[in-house]
Amino acid sequence: MIYEMTFQVRVSDYEEGLHWYQTLLNREPDFVPHDGFAEWELIPGSWLQVAEGIPTEGNGPMRFGVNDIEGERERLKRELQVEHFEIASRDEVPVKWATFLDPWGNRIGFFEYKNEAEMNERIQMILK
Q1: Does pLDDT of 9 surpass 80?
Q2: What is the rounded CA–CA span in Å between residue 4 and residue 12?
Q3: How confident is the model at residue 35, as a pLDDT?
Q4: Contact status, residue 109 vs residue 63, Cβ threshold 8 Å
Q5: Among 41, 54, 49, which residue's Cα sits nearest to residue 4?
Q6: What is the pTM of this model?
Q7: 101, 108 in Cβ contact below 8 A?
């Protein structure tokens, strides 16, 4: 079940990028978990992330919230032959995440809340 998503853009100058997106969105970020990274919840369950880094050509990653990232990894390996699906995590970030490529090179992924109660709370809020 997909219930939430994020989309990330990278900027080579974080302070300039942060200012640009604050101006574009006309507000401060909703979440800044660490240096060089900010998030805005654009609509319930849909987040825009601005991250310091080398901008990539094309799009992505676009990640969807799931309730079992390990299970989804196994399903995609089995059903779609997705080979590279490494799950990442940081202590200060409330989710674990993974990004993989579709057959055309688009960066797509999933994320899962580490805290099940927080995940259930998010699902209930979004489904209202």
Answers
A1: yes
A2: 27
A3: 96
A4: yes
A5: 41
A6: 0.72
A7: yes
